[in-house]
Amino acid sequence: MDKYLNIGKSVKKIDATSLVTGAEKFTSDFKFENTLYIVILYSPHSHAEIMNIDTTKAENIEGVVDILHYKNVPRVLHTTAGQGYPEPSPYDTYLFDKKVRFVGDRVALVAANTKEAAVQAKDKIKVDYKVLTPLYNPEKAMENSAQQIHEDDEYAKIPVKYRPDINLAAEVEITLGDIKKGFQKADFIEEHIYRTQYASHCAIEPHAAASFFDERGRLVIISSTQVPFHVRRIVSSVLSIPAGMIRVIKPRIGGGFGGKQEVFLEPLVSLVTWRNKRPAKIILSRKEVFVSSRTRHPTRIRMKTGVENDGTITSLEMDGLMNAGAYGSHSLTVLSNIGAKVLPIFNKIENIHFIGRSVYTNLPIGGAYRGYGATQGYFAFNQHMDIIARKTNQDILEFFKRWHIQEGETSNVFKALGEGKEGVDQIIKSCKLDECIDRGAAAINWYNKRGKRIKSGKDRVKGVGMAVAMQGSGIPKIDMGSASMKMNEDGSFNLLVGATDLGTGSDTILAQIASEVLRIPVEKIIILSSDTDLTPFDVGAYASSTTYVSGSAVEKCARKIAEQIINVASNILKSKKENLLLDMGKVIDIRDKKAVSFEEISLYSLYEQDQFQIQSQASHVSSESPPPFIAQFVEVEVDIKTGRIYVIKFVSAVDCGQPIHPKLVEGQVEGSVVNGISYALWEDYLFDSKGRMTNNRFWDYKIYTATDIPEIETIVVSSYEETGPFGAKSVGEIAINGPAPAIANAIYDATGVRLFDIPFTPEKVYKKIKEAGRT
Amino acid sequence: MEGIFKINGEDKKFFFNSRAILLDVLRENGYTEVKDGCREGECGACVVILDGKLVNSCQVFAASAIGKDIKTVKGLGDIHSPHLIQTAFVESGAVQCGFCTPGMVLAAYHLLKQNSDPTEDEIKRALDGNLCRCTGYVKIIDAVKMAAKKMRKNG
Ligand code: FES
Ligand code: FES
Fold it and tell me: Residue A415 burial by CB count (10 A; 0-12/13-18/19+): exposed, middle or buried?
């Protein structure tokens, strides 16, 4: 018999039918009487001071109601990063500033009765700029002569290194052991520089926010956000509106991937509503999403290792330089994760030095993006290890198995490096990475393909590559999720959670967890999420936290409900509590098989005797962040005459603990993999000499479509994480880490050519092949 | 200007600006199941079936669609009686955020009307104009296969 009723079952996703029939509402679908439409005027300059703004002509356009800019908005330094309080990102942003720092920085907004009027008026605003020298090259950002992008009075909320005077948005450094000694012991040194580029999340729903006053004069914000509670807090502090006056609702949201963990539109709509006492709405265009929302931070990562001839790594130095872009949102924590999520996987390396710097440039703003630094770090790490394994004549699979962290082990890095500050010590309780490696290798037919350089056409040759990764499950001792629950008279339950379903299916996952505890079908759980008035607090959807952290809160909450149900049942049945069991909507006495239904229990508790509402609440903070593990394999075909890469097959074998909903697990992996391949081969931001992004449309920022995908196989290797709800860990981000390095390693396997920069465009690949004389 | 459109079988009269695009006119009049993802003809979220053809409604002037037959995803089925293609999407796990879904479902519907037994390649090509960033397309392709099978069974 199956141990679980609902866990591990691909039950119907709760919102799937309503989504597929077009019944669900997204932010832009809400309509209000008398709405003000907002458009934003952006800077045409990379770096400039605004000498004056003249809005007279714009105000004269019929239908224009309000125009906001640096002269008439509250001047409050804040960060737009939707993180916990106090945010680890620097306070370096105003609603509108006197200075603009990249092409696409906001200068003013127009609110008008129609969108057309707002657009017309926007073009009539006269801005006098004093153009300043721009800074585009992050590698030059800290040089003395470099133009200072941010001001000296901007600051970090937590005690970390923040130096606007030298364009340093963040810095982290850890040293473990003796790095020098380690290098001396080595037989050889392997050192390379790896580079990753800008990328856009490309959630198909562009960012949107709306606000209005409800009947009682409270401000309601509807937003396509991953972090409704942080929205409430940040809007409250930037606009000095008491949090109790604000209600934030997240309806359905059309994908986030980190791009919507950013609070930059909500303060604007709120301010317009607040000033004009009218509903306000903003919907970004695709171009605005590309240029003026947030991106994946580009990085340059230098890896230096001391290696003995048997492959032992005696010292490892990782030096990450991250381009924060014009503002420092997430610049400390993404940077930290380049090391924190990568280095612990090889926990046997004793001597480690990690240094990371985030620097300001006059380019688009970085932010949270699925993988969150781990993607950039693993790109360097996995190629570097492939190089070492090859140089020391080792089978890369055996090499990984020998060095990776195992169950019962820890890494010094866990404690030394957290998200922007010290981390939290932990011992790995579940790790099935060996099994992931073996099963993934079998699925790609590794040993029959590796190193074989199989010709598949006149100019085509095949190769295989692989990569491993770990991520985390929430931010330990920081991320908190909570839930409340009550029982209805038919034995159904309302489950209220602050957790934020971005389309990942977390509403369904959380309902599964609650229903498993109560041993009832999932349909008996009525879930409502992400409404700051109705649901209890949750940090929101980021850091792969929802299943693990919010799920644990739901599990605790449901256990309390179960206890109350048992108490009432024991009164009704006159049975001892310890003899009672929950089973399919009934409580049964295991000795005499007497039973009472949930319905009867609920009616009894509500109407008959010692009346009370069966209800409960619980919060959860985890003291650790158990990593999921993954091994990813790819077979590619390289056209040596054109440099084109064809991905033939991609296999992921993932250990995410007990999968709560296997299909949703696969969905997370498949979505990450395709995004990852698209990032590895195609996606990039192109800029002209003035710092303008030139490919800001889907026409020329191509992402993968159905015809582009290779054969994709996902193997869910189940394990059991004792600290997680029903043994679960996370899976939302991890699978985006492997595609780029695995493909790079496969290209090498096919051609003997190494690509140290993503994306692997035909031009780059061809050039390398030509240089190596392999055409 | 004004015009009558036959939307999901019902005649509807709308007033609109002569340069308005069909996407906006539909959304303003409550057909919010037609999604706006780029307004550039590149994402397919705004797809409708216009006189039997699959079109990006952001690339069509509303004026040019007057008198024509328009089908949105709501015209296939609703929450009480979803269309078999819609059920196949649900059962295959093809719906994550659901923003691309109305367009995907209509693209699938359009394909299956013409070809009840498509190959995997034909399915992929039929979905080529529709971007999805959540699913990696794997389960969407599964859904179309499942729907095709079911439709063939049902005759
Ligand atoms: S909105 Fe029409 S194709 Fe994207
Ligand atoms: S399901 Fe989210 S874009 Fe397709």
Answer: middle
